[in-house]
């Protein structure tokens, strides 16, 4: 369904450090890093798409998060959600909702919410019963 997601960053090195740690927790691998743009992309180890991209905006203006926008990333299990949330906070993220069940979405939805250092809202979630 998705080809890629692009997240704007104002400080590429800070964003790269944040997302490298987060993507590592989720088992995603770095596909490329181009300091000339600058931008970088991660992918699943077993598929070329979708890509998760982070970098400076193409129009060379300041990156800013949109109201109501959020990127949700799948985790293999609930423990990975917990670790990803902790990793995000340890690398400059801000908590927007601690890990936990959200039965108002569905009985097995387990998610955590946070913002990256540029204010972009992200979620890491698992949709299967525990253990996932």
Structure write-up:
It is a single chain. This protein is an alpha/beta fold and 132 residues long. Helices cover 20% and strands 34% of the residues. It has helices at residues 12-25, 78-90, and strands spanning 4-8, 29-34, 39-43, 51-55, 71-74, 94-101, 110-115, 121-126. The strands form 2 sheets. Strands 1-4-3-2 form a 4-stranded mixed β-sheet, with helices on one face. The protein has a 4-stranded mixed β-sheet with strand order 5-8-7-6, covered by helices on one side. It is globular, with a radius of gyration of 14 Å. The mean pLDDT is 95.
Summarize the structure.
It is built from 2 helices and 8 strands, in the order E-H-E-E-E-E-H-E-E-E. The strands form 2 sheets. It has a 4-stranded mixed sheet, covered by helices on one side. It has a 4-stranded mixed sheet with strand order 5-8-7-6, covered by helices on one side.
Distance between the termini: 23 Å
SS-derived structural category: alpha/beta
Query: Over all CA atoms, what is the radius of gyration?
Result: 14 Å
Topology pattern, helix = H, strand = E: EHEEEEHEEE
The quaternary state of the protein chains shown equals: single chain
Task: Tell me the number of helical segments per DSSP (H or I, 4 or more residues long).
Answer: 2
Beta-strand residue percentage: 25-35%
**Broad shape:** globular
Mean pLDDT reading: 95
Number of strands: 8
Helix content: 10-25%
Low-confidence stretches at least 5 residues in length (pLDDT < 50)? none
**Strands across the major sheet, in which order?**
1-4-3-2
Characterize the largest beta sheet: strand count, sense, and whether it forms a barrel.
4 strands, mixed
């Amino acid at each position: 369904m998705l080809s890629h997601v692009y997240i704007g960053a104002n400080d590429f090195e800070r964003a790269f450090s944040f997302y490298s740690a987060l993507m590592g927790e989720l088992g995603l691998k770095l596909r490329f890093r181009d300091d000339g743009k600058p931008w970088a992309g991660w992918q699943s180890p077993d598929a070329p798409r979708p890509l998760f991209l982070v970098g400076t905006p193409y129009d060379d203006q300041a990156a800013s998060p949109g109201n109501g926008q959020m990127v949700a990333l799948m985790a293999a299990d609930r423990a990975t959600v917990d670790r990803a949330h902790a990793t995000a906070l340890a690398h400059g993220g801000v908590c927007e909702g601690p890990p936990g069940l959200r039965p108002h979405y569905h009985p097995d939805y387990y998610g955590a919410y946070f913002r990256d250092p540029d204010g972009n809202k992200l979620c890491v979630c698992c949709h299967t019963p525990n253990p996932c």
